[in-house]
Amino acid sequence: MISFSNAQRAEVLTQALPYIKRYTGKIVVVKYGGNAMVNEQLKQQVMEDVVLLWLIGVKVVLIHGGGPEITDLMTRVGKQPEFVDGLRVTDQETVDIVQMVLAGKVNKTLVNLLEMKGGKAIGLSGIDGRLIECRQRDERLGFVGEITKIHIKPITDLLSNGYIPVISTVGCDREGHTYNINGDTAAAHIAGALEAERLVLMTDIDGILRDRNDPASLIPELTVTDVEKLRQEGIISGGMIPKVECCVTALRQGVRNAVIMDGRVPHSILMELLTNEGAGTWIHEG
C-alpha cells in the first residue's frame, strides 16, 4: 500500500479545492450500474464517493439499475429472460419481478449502505409522486416504458432537506400500469428536468474509444457536433449509441455537461469530478 505524508494529503485536498467550489451546491446525477454494482468492493467505494460529495455540499442524485439481479430472480423462478434490441421483454410477471428487485431489494440495499457510510439517503421509485410518468414503448416489449414526463418535486424536496435521493427506474402511466424504464434514459431525463450541472453514466468500459480494442484510444472530450461525426464514421456504434444519445438528450434539456466513464475503476466518480484529468469521455455542447 502506498503511504502518504500528512503534507501530501493536504496538498491533494488543496488541489481539489477549485473543483469542490465548482460543484458545491450544484446537482450531479449519477447513473449507477454495471460491474460497479455487482462487485462488492466497488459498490462500497461508489457509496463512499457519493457520501464524500454529499458531505462537501454536492447535491447528488443516485439513479440505479439492477439488470443482473432481475435476471437472477427470473432464472430462480424458472423464467427465461428475453431481449429485443437490448431491451428486456417485460410481461406482467416480469414487471412484478422488476418492481420487486429494483424498488425493493436493490434500492433499499443502496440506501442502507449510504447511511452506513455516514450519509442521509431516502429511496424512491419512479412511481413515488409519479416521478417517472410514461407510456408503453412497443407492444413487442410489453411493459417497457417510454418517458413522457418527469415530476421532479419528490427529488427537489429531498435535496432541499439534505437527503441523497436514490431512485429506481420503475415508472407508471396515467392508468396506473407499472413499466420497466431503461436506467440511462431515466437518468438523462431526470438530469434534464433538474437542469443538473453534470450527468455521470457509469459503464463497464473506459469511455468512448477510437479503437474498441485499445483502451489507450480513449477520447477524453467531445462536443455534440463531434458525436454525430463519430457515429457516421462508425466509431460510436453498438451499445455505446444509446448511452451517447442519452448524454445528448440531457444536454439539450439543460444539463451543463455529461460524462461516460468506467465504473470499474476505484473512486472513479471522485477522479472525474475533483481532478483535472477526469475518468472517461466528457461530452458538452461546445
End-to-end distance: 41 Å
CATH C-level name = Alpha Beta
Contiguous uncertain segments of 5+ residues:
none
Spatial shape? globular
Radius of gyration: 19 Å
Widest beta sheet: strand line-up: 5-8-2-1-11-13-14-12
Briefly note the CATH topology name: Carbamate kinase
Instruction: Estimate the helix proportion, in percent.
Output: 40-55%
Q: Strand count, sense and closure of the main sheet?
A: 8 strands, mixed
Count of discrete structural domains: 1
The name of the CATH architecture is 3-Layer(aba) Sandwich
What structural keywords apply?
286 residues, alpha/beta, Carbamate kinase, eight-stranded mixed beta sheet, two-stranded antiparallel ribbon
Describe the secondary-structure layout.
Layout: H1 6-23, E1 27-32, H2 35-38, H3 40-55, E2 59-64, H4 67-76, E3 83-84, E4 87-88, H5 92-116, E5 121-125, E6 132-136, E7 145-150, H6 153-160, E8 164-168, E9 170-172, E10 178-180, H7 183-194, E11 198-203, E12 221-223, H8 224-233, H9 240-252, E13 257-262, H10 268-274, E14 280-284
Helix pairs in contact: 4-5, 7-9
Short overview:
With 286 residues, the chain is α/β, with parallel strands linked by helices. It contains 10 helices and 14 strands.
Q: What can you see in these coordinates?
A:
With 286 residues, the chain is of the alpha/beta class. The chain has one domain (27-284): Carbamate kinase (3-Layer(aba) Sandwich), CATH 3.40.1160. The protein has helices spanning 6-23, 35-38, 40-55, 67-76, 92-116, 153-160, 183-194, 224-233, 240-252, 268-274; strands at 27-32, 59-64, 83-84, 87-88, 121-125, 132-136, 145-150, 164-168, 170-172, 178-180, 198-203, 221-223, 257-262, 280-284.
